[in-house]
Design brief:
Chain A: InterPro entries: ATP_synth_B-like_membr_sf, ATP_synth_b/b'su_bac/chlpt, ATP_synth_F0_bsu_bac, ATP_synthase_B_chain. The complex is a heterodimer. By secondary structure, chain A is an all-alpha fold. Chain A contains 2 helices and no strands. The radius of gyration of chain A is 60 Å and the shape is rod-shaped. The N and C termini of chain A lie far apart (170 Å). Chain B has one domain (9-285). The chains are: A mainly alpha, B mainly alpha.
Chain lengths: 156, 289
């Protein structure tokens, strides 16, 4: 327990350890700590940013959805309107077509009637001529009296 | 456990309190001192080999451990050793930031070195007092030395040379930074012009001089005194082992209890040494106090 040379030796030892610690031990560790601190701060900021972006995205998604819904409703409305239009158009087309068909049918009927009448007239004429022929026998020449018979037939 | 068959209690204690001193004895020439009286007669130019060996060993352990971590240090998820080292570094840095207001890149590493090194040196106190000295004595006996004349103190901080060595370095740093920050005039002014103004110069010098000189002395003696007293109690407890079964049993319990309590003391003393160093250096950096 004497104070001796150990004192100086210890002072030198101490100084060497402090020097080494200061040069090779402290700076890298503190640097790493600071780096990690920065990293954590950055991570937290990023998380915060992500949070905000998420909220923003959600809001945007909501807006887009609302817009889409509105568009869809509009399209459905238009489609319905178009469908009604088409039905209406079809109805009117059908009506026109029906009328046309009816008209055509009436015309056809009329034509047929006329034709039948004509035929009938001719047949009556022929019959009348035949009857007249029988009555008159050879006295009447069918060629010379042709116009008289025709007139007669026309009056039927 | 005690090897006191041929030693009295007093000799046993004395044996434990003597350093392994290497030096030139006026009569026996160069060599290890055979007892504490011879160690005293060697005067100043002798060296306590055990103090040097264990303090350097523990310092190297500290540097090796921390350097290994610093080499592989990563800002990503730290491993076990790095976590532990970072915890200590963070603790020291926090203390420096709290107590030291100036700007000096040296203070924090200095505080770290003091804290860990002193803690390691104090930690040697928890090794059973006879274990290493006894093994060392047996080893030396192989080489033909008288085991009763082989001394070994394993706790460097129970050697005032070690504590004063550190305290004096801190003191020199306090002087250096006082003069660097305030100039010689400012430093002398601080010593002589307060608290009583320039007409009370002698009283000022005495008061401030004592307060300045008491810094390294109190720093060194506090650590030394605590560790020396703790060591002494371990030695006294160890003495009980030779007193029969009951005393030996009591000693076992006492040693355990004291060791548990001592864990607190060794940490506290390392912490106090560090904090006071920071505070003294902070005072050296401040213009006014």
């Amino acid at each position: 327990m004497n104070i001796n040379l150990t004192l100086f030796a210890q002072m030198i030892t101490f100084a060497v350890f402090v020097g080494f610690c200061m040069k090779y031990v402290w700076p890298p560790i503190v640097k790493a700590l600071a780096e990690r601190k920065a990293k954590i701060a950055e991570g937290l900021a990023a998380a915060e940013r992500g949070h905000q972006e998420k909220a923003l995205g959600e809001q945007r998604a909501l807006e887009v959805m609302k817009e889409a819904k509105a568009t869809a409703a509009e399209i459905v409305g238009q489609a319905q309107k178009r469908a009604t239009d088409i039905v209406e158009e079809a109805k009117s087309d059908a009506r026109v077509e029906g009328e046309r068909i009816v008209t055509a049918a009436q015309a056809e009927i009329e034509r047929e009637t006329n034709r039948a009448r004509e035929e009938l007239r001719e047949k009556v004429a022929t019959l009348a001529v035949a009857a007249a022929e029988k009555i008159l026998q050879k006295e009447i020449n069918i060629d010379t009296h042709r116009s008289i018979v025709d007139d007669f037939a026309k009056q039927l | 456990m005690s090897s006191s068959e041929t030693l009295t209690s007093q000799e046993y204690i004395q044996h434990h309190l003597t350093n392994l001193t290497l030096g030139v004895h006026p009569e026996h020439g160069f060599g290890f001192a055979h007892n504490s009286a011879e160690a005293g007669e060697m005067g100043f130019w002798a060296i306590n080999v055990d103090t040097m060996f264990f303090s350097i060993l523990l310092g190297v352990v500290f540097i090796w451990l921390f350097r290994k971590v610093a080499d592989n240090v990563t800002a990503d998820v730290p491993g076990g050793a790095q976590n532990f080292v970072e915890w200590i570094v963070d603790f020291v840095e926090e203390n420096v930031r709290g107590s030291f207001s100036g700007k000096n890149a040296m203070v924090a590493p200095l505080a770290l070195t003091i804290f860990v090194w002193v803690f390691f040196m104090n930690l040697m106190d928890l090794i059973p007092v006879d274990l290493i000295p006894h093994l060392f004595a047996q080893l030396m006996a192989v080489f033909g030395a008288n085991p009763h004349h082989v001394y070994l103190k394993v706790v460097p901080t129970t050697d005032p040379n070690a504590t004063f060595g550190m305290a004096l370095m801190v003191f020199f740093m306090v002087l250096y930074y006082s003069i660097k920050m305030k100039g010689i005039g400012g430093f002398l002014g601080e010593l002589t012009l307060q608290p009583f103004g320039k007409w009370g110069m002698p009283a000022n010098l005495i008061l401030e001089g004592i307060s300045l000189l008491s810094k390294p002395v109190s720093l060194a003696l506090r650590l030394f005194g605590n560790m020396y007293a703790g060591e002494m109690i371990f030695i006294l407890i160890a003495l009980l082992y030779s007193g029969g079964v009951v005393l030996a049993g009591t000693a076992g319990v006492l040693q355990f209890v004291w060791a548990v309590f001592h864990i607190l003391i060794i940490t506290l003393q390392a912490f106090i040494f560090m904090v006071l160093t920071i505070v003294y250096l902070d005072m050296a950096h401040q213009e006014h106090h």
